[in-house]
Amino acid sequence: MNRFGLLLKRQWLEFGKIYLISFGVLLGVLILFYKINITEDNLNSRYYNSLNFRHPLFLVTGFIFISITSSSYFMNLGQKPKAIINILIPASTLEKFLTAMFYTLIVSIPSYLLCFYLVDAAFVSSIRDSHTLTSSYTDYDGKKIVIDHFAYFFSTETAIQFRSFYYMPLLINSIFLLGSIFFKNFHYVKTAISLMVFVVLWIASTIYVMSKLTDNTVWVGSPYWQDETHIFFATNLVALCLTMIFWLITFIRLKEKEA
Amino acid sequence: MIEINNLNFGYSKHKPLFKNMSMRLSNGHIYGLLGKNGAGKSTLLKNLAGLVYPQGGQLDVMGFNPTKRQPALLSQICFIPEEFYLPPVKIDSYLKANAPFYPNFDHQYLATLLKEFDIPASNKLIDMSYGQKKKFIIAFGLATQARLVIMDEPTNGLDIPSKAQFRKIMASALTDERCIIISTHQVRDLDNLIDTVIMLDENDVALKASVEEITTKLTFKKVKEIDESIFYAEPSLSGYNAVMPNYHHEESKLDMELLFNAILAEKTKFKPLFS
Question: N or C: which end of chain B has fewer CB within 10 A?
């Protein structure tokens, strides 16, 4: 335990700088986007979608921040002089792996969410001080639903729906962490290209197989797969399994890394 | 301390570096590891430190298998690579982050070594010259009090006074508990420092003998003419520098460069003497 603590402290020297720079850039980008998109004109025109830029912003910056921090963690192992020092640090491979998980998961993901939350809170609070914009509708049960168009990001309906995809940051982390130890150089670009190729092949093959299997057919089985909660459950399960597999491969690569 | 049994290693399947290499290294010695470029000096050192994995055979380093990279073994290994990296931090920060991993780290000894090497403790590592960095990494490695000290070309980049300091420090760093292995091309840098010579050639150990054994069995001297008793000779200004069997128990100083060339050129002549 003591050694693990020492390793966390030591790794901060190497990873801390990249993390702080990435965090600073993230903060700057978020502030810039809020500043550009929230204009007095937009607010006074009472556009319902004045703050809709936040959803793609959250997804894109989240992907970039998590992938960059994950991709940079093991990149030193691609250079022999740095790899020698890292391999010879008197700590077990498991401790080294857990340290990577600590910084790229436990530190990076919550700090991203906190950063987004604080920037959003700061801007939206100032809007809510001087503007209000709501609309309402009646649902099937006759209940009146009020939509606050200047709501804080994490309390919007879309952001709440994002919670079903909680595995995405974990999956992104596992893919880019593996890429950082798998490739010797240009880790980020190579991982991103591999991911892109994989996603394209996956989508194309799924469409092809499903159309071959289901074209001109009628569903006569149980309605299990027509319930979206079951589909979500299956997707989450597959994603979590893939995440675990990528982490396991990363651990094995770390164990077998030579310098 | 170190036992190598039938070690097989190669970076490619068709080009093995070591074929069934066996050797035993003990505490209380400074070994000089010599060999041509590509003979596998650095690779052997990396095998001992667990930085690469052997393709066959067994390695035992202080009772551990280095390929398992157990922290208990790693804390007893000081490895000074030929090409190294130091983070852009102050010496103090580097020590705070790295020294606690070594249970016997001696801060007082480090301060003495840094003073001897003329490196101010307040320096930032990034602002230092290559030679200063090398001296720092050597000082840090020795201060860990590791029992196995492995150095790959440690004198590369050191100026002439620093090389003399290095020899002095290394001689004083040897204890009965320690084993020091130094690989180098610059054999003269190891003069009067090493007590055992290990020479690698053709995928195996071409020679492993103590300096005392070598000078007992061989004599190194200048001769005017070459005769059949001479194993190997190189022309010099006043005749030849020659290596020959020491039939008359003459005392001579080991000329490592001459021995190195002699072993490479006339391996078969030397083999019966040192087998």
Answer: C
